[in-house]
Amino acid sequence: MNNRYVYGIIDGDPVEFEGEAVAGATDVYTISHRRLGAVVSDIDTTEPEETDEDAKRHDEVLREIMNHDGGRAVVPMQFGMAFESDRALKNVLRGALPAFRRALNDVEGRVELGVKVVSEEDADVDADAVRERVADELEPIAAQSVANDLFSDRLLLNRSYLVDREEREEFDEAIARLEEEAEGFMVRYTGPFAPYSFVDVTIGASQ
After folding, report:
1. Which of 102, 124, 136, 194 has the fewest other C-beta atoms within 10 Å?
2. Predicted TM-score of the model (pTM)
3. Domain tally, the chain
4. Residue 206 confidence (pLDDT)
């Protein structure tokens, strides 16, 4: 198991812990370049199969990193990033260092939260009014938000919000108000997640 599977990029002190990780790995640790670090585990392939179980483990490792030492910023990698050597991985860190530092700065102290608003079956709902009500409640609290695909006719709103950890309670309370006032629709609130929707750093696995 000589390949390094990458979950995400952090800054500062390394993290290390044990748990159920991707492709049967149990040890999660950090490979550092300067003060930038890739959080990895050792696996026996550079092309891991994206099973539901391993996709869940990938996200759980990221959540563990986010909760480490009272809260850590992490730039999450998409599933499947693996490298044959420490050298290859450090070359990528070196080349993308400015981009990673910018991304880490953007998400420092923040988490991603998901909100979907779904109309009840056969309900007559003013979609624009609902979206405006949600925006009035949530946008002032969030640092950023982005729209996601409306993959169903009943899906009135599907957004991801980047929220300061210190504002999380206020955001939760705003969601509770929306849920209490909901008539003809349901609010589905998920997270916290690693901030996939708010980082734009792409790296290629290097042999």
Report:
1. 124
2. 0.87
3. 2
4. 44
